[in-house]
TrEMBL record:
Organism of derivation: Caenorhabditis elegans
Name of this chain's protein: Haloacid dehalogenase-like hydrolase domain-containing protein 3
UniProt-listed InterPro entries: HAD-like_hydrolase_domain, HAD-like_sf, HAD-SF_hydro_IA, HAD-SF_hydro_IA_REG-2-like, HAD-SF_hydro_IA_REG-2-like_cap, HAD_sf
Domain of life: Eukaryota
Gene Ontology annotations for the cellular component aspect, listed alphabetically: nucleus
Pfam families attached to this UniProt entry: Hydrolase
Length: 248
């Protein structure tokens, strides 16, 4: 089925243009966390003699993440910047879980966590053969792009995973000031490569709203990266491994 979806040509007006650009989400499509953040946060806190209950962290984190996303969108773009943004989110999370803690100490912990997530240590490739898969696609003439709601640390991470050089463009919400599913983020790719139509882009990501519907609503082709088959989307539009792609 995938080959039927992707091997389209532009020989006549009744068929859509061929896929020229493959755009990929990053988190949980290319790379993923080895451990859940509450476990990591509580472990780092203990290193600074601060006890926090990992069971309380996620709820507090989501609350503070949402608050800061409204107050200073796209990781503090054109404002406080992504490092200060993350330190505010994480330190507020820890203070919610340990309200008697000193603010200065939790900010030190938050800074240490920010630096930790800038390294490959807490991350891993979703698929061990990702580079080989992407190289094969490039050899077929496909332009590879990353479109991610992530801050500027992603470029260094992709470089350290030996992937960055494979991408002709890396579009990060933290560097441009808007994020998926905003159509402007996909329009950047159309403009950059002087595409005739958004349908010359195939976008793949794991988020139903931001990736699948965001891309389709703009006119791109889209596949949902759904390794666990957890979404109610027709199997025709899902993919569980990037290596399953058959372009031409």
């Amino acid at each position: 089925m995938l080959s039927n979806l992707l091997r389209t040509t532009s020989r006549n007006l009744s068929t859509p243009p061929v896929v020229k650009v493959l755009s990929l989400d990053a988190r949980d499509t290319l790379i993923t966390m080895k451990e859940s953040p509450p476990i990591v946060y509580s472990r780092f806190a203990r290193q600074y003699d601060l006890e926090v209950d990992s069971d309380q962290i996620m709820g507090s984190f989501l609350k503070n993440y949402k608050r800061m996303s409204i107050a200073s969108p796209c990781f503090g773009f054109n404002g406080i910047g992504n490092k200060s943004w993350w330190i505010e989110v994480v330190s507020s999370t820890l203070l919610d879980c340990a309200p008697d803690s000193e603010k200065g100490r939790v900010e030190v912990i938050a800074g240490a966590l920010y630096n930790h997530y800038a390294t490959p240590e807490p991350w891993k490739l979703v698929e061990s053969d990702t580079r080989q898969t992407l190289q094969k696609l490039r050899l077929k003439g496909i332009i590879l792009v990353v479109i991610s709601n992530f801050d500027s640390r992603l470029k260094s991470l992709l470089s350290q995973f030996n992937l960055l050089d494979l991408f002709s463009m890396t579009v990060l919400s933290g560097e441009i000031g808007y994020e998926k599913p905003d159509e402007k983020i996909f329009q950047l790719v159309v403009n950059h490569f002087d595409l005739i139509s958004p349908s010359e882009i195939l976008h793949i990501g794991d988020n139903l709203k931001n990736d699948f519907h965001g891309a389709k609503n703009f006119g791109c082709r889209a596949l949902l990266f759904d390794s666990s088959s957890s979404h109610n989307v027709e199997p025709f539009y899902c993919i569980s491994r990037l290596s399953d792609l058959k372009l031409y």
